[in-house]
Amino acid sequence: MASRGVRLAVLGALAVALVALPFVADKFYVQLATKVLILAIFVMSLDLLVGYTGLASLGHAAFYGFAGYLLALITPQYEAASLWTSLPIALAGSALLALVIGTMVLRTSGIYFIMATLAFGEMLFHVFHDTSIAGGSDGIYIYVRPVATIFGWLPFDFEKFTHFYFVVLVATLGVYAVLRNILDSPFGRVIVGIRVNEQRMRSLGYHTFRYKLACFVLAGTLAGLAGYLAAVQFGVVNPDMLGFHLSASGLMMLILGGMGTLVGPVIGAAAMMVLELVFQGISEHWLLLMGGFIVLVVLVLPHGLIGIVSRRGAREDPHG
Amino acid sequence: MELDTFLIQVLNGVQYGLLLFLVASGLTLVFGIMGIINLAHGSFYMIGAYLAWSLSQHLGSLALAILAGVVLTVLIGMALEWLLINKLYHRDHLYQVLLTYGLILVFEELRGVIWGNDVHGVAIPEWLGASIRLTDTLAYPVYRLWISAVCLVLAVLMYLLIQRTRLGMMIRAGAANREMVQSLGINIQLVYRVIFALGVALAAFAGMIAAPVSSVFPGMGNQVLIICFVVVVIGGIGSIKGAMAGAILIGLVDTFGKVVEVDIGGFRVLPELAGTTIYLLMAVVLLWRPEGIFGKRL
Question: Is residue A34 included in any domain, yes or no?
Fold first, then answer.
């Protein structure tokens, strides 16, 4: 790891860049940065499961998409929903869903867990894709973004892309701070212990199932936050938000950035978004390049980008 | 529901289940023996279907297309194991998931480049084109019966191969202790390559014989992959018996979910939610026996 001085300088420069961005960059770049930050929240929440607790979930997009759908469903057609009621409802919905799914999938481990999480995510996809509850395969548009009015005062306006950017930035930093605190707490020590050796944690008297379930619910709720913000940004939700490709992309961002660190997810989300743009610029068959790139990363870069600069932090084996 | 429609749905369900078994057995063999979780398994099902469609046009017969397709997919399987999969044996499942997810993207895009993104139909061969008349208004196509028969024969062959042959003995020994088998002078690397190619060819073959009844479309691979995951979770991973039980169960539940009508409080639950019935079944099994019906205790 680089010396403390260098680290502070890098962090300072990054902070200045993030705050200055909306004042100097075009709308396109501000919105791109917003998208990256939202994905960073999603990947950080996934990291809590995969990187710290050792639970490789392939269905994490379910919670992301579910919160987005909840916002779309409670927003009246041509009026705005209130941020202060719709956000708690969306988060509570994701948390509840994570509690129900987690109760079942956490009875399994390893490869079963991967398959079961994927299958439950796909179940949700079918619920929204096959039925008319929420617009079927087309999804639903959110014509008016939620308003943040408190007693007649409007602190920020989601219809302005710069305002939205700052709200997302604050949310990202908030999620980072919350996770940092949790991971440094005794609870965080226990979940890392579960990853390394669950048997031993159990023999020490910890009810590991409850800890894993708490992690699963927390990760699902934070993914819900990301999904809510994404629904606000794009003004539309569709079944792809819940699907398998987003869950797998999330894992890819996590590995690319470096899992088991909280900075890795942010780096990974940014790198994947930039790569996607670059590949799309090269060829219309950009998914071919993306697939090849993913294969290559697994073969030559198991510790992610952060592994290049740091020997500590990123790990390869979530169970060892 | 009338008795004859009921019986037809049972036949359809069993046929679909047997087809799922072919795909799921490859998945479960590759995991049970080699310890590899292969997300790209469904892609081979899709490749098989597209091969059946395009080769049968060039060769003029579905049977020849299937023969050529099986040879081709065995070669593809061996090449993949040699190039990529053998690098994953000592890696965590997470990396196996990601690498094979990358392969899904590659195969889907290649499919688009080579064959386009259209939906195609494949004609049923003439000698199997007949239908058996059941009543005045109902008939059952011979081709579907033929699919069931072929799948059953393959299932028996697979059982004999694993339980009764020398290669099967090596496979079972390799699953138990790879290093020991190797030190006894058996080329385990080659055994693994054969198993992987066998799994690939099974999935592709299932796609080929399914092509005339299910049509050929982009995304068919991921659809079947996820259903096979459900099959394997229900049956117990690594178990051929479990794959068979899970596949038939899913085949029946899925088929009946689409034809039985259930209303709860005026809301039509089935068949509108038919796509989710198999996942509910999985949820029940997970609560009852998390290791699957035939799985080893976790």
Answer: no
With beta carbons under 8 A apart, name residues in chain A contacting B112.
Answer: 285
- Among B240, B241, B273, B269, residue whose Cα is nearest residue B254: B273
| CA–CA separation, B130 and B140 (whole Å) | 9
CA dist., res. B288 & res. A119, Å (int): 17
Question: Who's near A104: CB < 8 A, 6+ residues apart?
Answer: A116, A120, B283, B286, B287
For A61-81, what is the mean pLDDT?
92
pLDDT at B268: 67
Please give the Cα distance from B53 to A151 (Å, whole number). Answer: 65
B47-67 core/surface letters (b: 16 or more CB in 10 A; e: else) = bbbbbbbbbbeeeeebeebbe
Residue A293 domain flag: yes
CB contact at 8 A, A304 and A314: yes
Residue A77 has pLDDT above 70, yes or no: yes
**A209 falls within a domain:** yes
Amino acid (1-letter code) at residue B290: P
Nearest to A168 by CA among A232, A211, A243: A232
The minimal CB distance from B105 to the residues A123, A291, A319 is found for A291
Q: With an 8 Å Cβ cutoff, is B29 touching chain A?
A: no
pLDDT tens digits, one per residue of B73-85: 999 999 999 999 9
Beta strands A236-237 and A140-141, pairing class: antiparallel
Q: Quick: pLDDT tens for B3-18.
A: 878 888 899 999 999 9
Q: How sure is the predictor about B154, in pLDDT bands with cuts at 50, 70 and 90?
A: very high
Nearest-neighbour CA in chain B from A298: distance (Å): 6
CB B147 within 8 A of CB B18: yes
How far is residue B199 CA from its own chain's centroid? Answer: 9
Structural domain containing residue A198: 40-307
DSSP state letter for A48 = I
ipTM: 0.89
Residue A179 Cα, gap to closest chain B Cα (Å): 22
Q: What is the pLDDT of residue B151?
A: 94
> Residue ranges of the domains in chain B?
18-218
Question: What is the pTM assigned to this prediction?
Answer: 0.90
Angle between helices B166-176 and B3-34 (to 10 degrees): 70
